What does this fold into?
Amino acid sequence: MSAPAIVVVGAGPAGVAAACRAAGCGRRVVLLDDNPAPGGQIWRGDRQQRWLARLADSGVEVRCGTTVSGLELPGATTILATGARELFLPFPGWTSPGVTGAGGLQALIKSGFSIAGKRVVVAGSGLLLPAVASLVRKSGGSVVLIAEQTSAMNMAAFAAALLSRPEKLAQSAEAALSLLGVPYFTRCVVESFDGGRVRLRRGNAIFECDTDYLASGFGLVPNTELAALLGCRLLAGAVEVDEFQQTTVAGVYAAGELTGIGGVEKSLVEGEIAGLAAAGAVDEARALFGRSRRARRFSAALNRAFALDGGLRALPRDETLVCRCEDVSHSRLKGLASWRQAKLHTRCGMGPCQGRVCAAAAQFLYGWNDQSPRPPVFPVPAGLLADPGSFEGEPT
Amino acid sequence: MNHSADVVIAGGGIVGAACAYECARAGLSVTVIEGAIIGGGASAAGMGHIVVMDDSEAQFNLTLLSQQLWSERVAEMTDGVEHLPCGTLWVAADEEEMAEVRRKRAFYSQRGVPVEMLDSRQLAEAEPHLRPDLAGGLLVPGDSVVYPPVAARWLLDRCGARVLTGVPIATLDDNGATLEDGSRVSGGVIVNALGAKAARLMPSIPVTPRKGHLVITDRYPGFLRHQLVELGYLKSAHSAGADSIAFNVQPRRTGQVLIGSSRQFGADHKGIDQPILSRMLRRAAEYMPRIGSLIAIRAWTGFRAATPDHLPLIGPMPGASRLWLATGHEGLGVTTALATGRLIADQITGRSSPIDAAPYLPARCIHG
Ligand SMILES: Cc1cc2nc3c(=O)[nH]c(=O)nc-3n(C[C@H](O)[C@H](O)[C@H](O)COP(=O)(O)OP(=O)(O)OC[C@H]3O[C@@H](n4cnc5c(N)ncnc54)[C@H](O)[C@@H]3O)c2cc1C
Ligand SMILES: Cc1cc2nc3c(=O)[nH]c(=O)nc-3n(C[C@H](O)[C@H](O)[C@H](O)COP(=O)(O)OP(=O)(O)OC[C@H]3O[C@@H](n4cnc5c(N)ncnc54)[C@H](O)[C@@H]3O)c2cc1C
It folds into this structure.
């Protein structure tokens, strides 16, 4: 009599919330994640976290260390919550030692890397930058400055969308950071990095500073490859869903950063809705629509505020690598018509990372919008490709 | 916008590009029409193994001529063509297949193709990752590997043909092509080089798509030294109608390993067929136990243009006055592209060819 298990892919906030709510409806739930522990980008390994505690008591079958390759549908009912990754934009020196992603440095520090006594320049765009800066400070490093590409005006508009007292919030981020004694520069970008020396442009002014590390990230891009392989339609780089988080493929739901970058609150409420809807608890799901609409408004405001300035397209020089797996430079790509042409004629995106790093950058730099994800979503031993049942959740 | 040229070539795969190259070198004005991306069809999906084959005299002659033309050409080509002169090692699992090795050795030797027979021990030395109990093999050192999309692009850039990309052809007729945007390209000779899609615009030609799967790994320089093909391959490859898989692995110049191969009829969707992919990879692991532990970074499929007698269609279309065919190359179109281009240009200009063109003429199986 038991209905087939609901399979949730991704154990970040969205996937955990989805799994808990579906299990709460009495359904058998399998939660898959490629990391050793649940938690996703922000809660990984955090035992105190309320949702993770709830997960532990939920009866959800958690299978960590499991990569879903996208060769077949993981379950008859599947919830995708594969999150997002950082966007790297190439500038001269971005592949040098000493340069990391912003989230990348955060993850390094969280996993025990010592930043004590080191100088760090944090650059790029988005709310992750101040978060990383404060972690660096807390961990004994010093933040030379934060370079945010967007304007103070865009940030003020963002604040206005959040609160009725925009002036106050507009200043709050800057204020909080300056209290910490960290210069937070808007309209400021890294022009190049060379052996510990960072060259920046702020408005029309150029200046330089020395640093041990440069942490650079330009916001997040949804991990849509798996959804695309399963046939889900994408809209503006995110998975298209209805208000029940149902994708364009029957039985497949999507939640969290995957449906549009919006932070943890959006991931949680979308995850809850997806879990409830997948388990058939339609009314309970509907009761959360107000919260999810608010989260989406926040998301839209966030994306407007930190929209990338077209001037960033001028950062790479001819010889700057865009695809670091296959050593493909800007000059070889700039005349091409599409991502697929770039792949076929230059090998851009054909290396081990399969474009996870360079595809989003190339789309931004060259205005391409074609995607052609191929399985597996993540590299796996060939033997596992031969026998995906052995590592992918639930036969349908 | 309307164009005209001496020769209009429909399709910018490796075959269309090679036809353009030879026609342009013969002094003809050439326009190539590619609906998508140069070299982005089967030419991007295949293995790019340049291999002399012995199924029939006709196939042998075409593949040998082509192999010779490739070795002349690759010397000039850009580095991106990734030419790797790795040779082919035909692997015999047992004594029955060793008999095939001897037959093949005699066939190639009589025709002047250098080959070398390996016993079990020599095979193990040549390819240490093969399982140890294999019977032996036949090494054909002249065979090699290329990356066809870049070769196609090079041929077109080099020959100066006019190349129209991005708008597919809606119809082909005796005078030219009408594109989907309504524009018209007319020519003295129209060559259908549309690969597995050739019959879409000319339904009377006997070309059917035959699907194949491939998997590529991360970089493992030195893991593999030759293109390895099991000798059961021919048996399975030509069992028309049935799906088949074979051990067929290739070293890439990048150090990656390309794992094949499969053949299916009647499968018309591009997606991965998991049962076929599984069989193919298990077969590879039977021959090379360690291959299962290599990291696979991508799997994909492609379509070969198959004809009933496994020979390509090269020459005038019976019943038409100016339509020509250059398609139906099945699993050998990268190898045979350059000879195809030569035969097409020779026939159009009335030149004599290095080999007899008769076995490939469409008139053998199409009756106008
Ligand atoms: C590098 C980085 C750092 C961040 N730091 C912060 C921060 O400090 N503060 C903050 O508020 N927000 C941060 N975020 C934003 C964060 O993404 C969200 O706040 C929140 O974690 C989103 O939850 P989610 O469930 O949608 O996705 P995620 O938390 O990203 O969870 C998705 C999970 O799915 C797994 N997964 C993906 N594909 C597969 C697959 N094919 N098979 C198996 N598992 C798969 C991933 O490994 C991951 O564990 C960060 C994001 C990134 C990318
Ligand atoms: C899995 C696999 C492995 C293979 N391995 C090998 C190998 O090792 N060695 C070997 O020699 N061969 C191999 N082959 C075969 C080889 O790849 C093909 O025979 C060869 O690429 C055919 O080239 P083509 O130019 O005829 O076709 P394609 O490369 O398919 O070119 C046809 C072109 O026509 C275009 N087109 C189609 N319709 C239209 C239209 N309406 N308007 C405009 N343009 C259009 C397409 O976009 C395409 O670019 C393999 C094939 C497969 C599938």
Observations:
- Residues 85-142+208-306 of chain B form a domain with the D-Amino Acid Oxidase; Chain A, domain 2 fold (CATH 3.30.9.10).
- The longest strand of chain B covers residues 208-219.
- The interface with chain A takes residues 37-40, 44, 80, 149-150, 153, 165-166, 215, 217-219, 259, 272, 274, 277-278, 281-282, 284-285, 291-300 of chain B (CB under 8 Å).
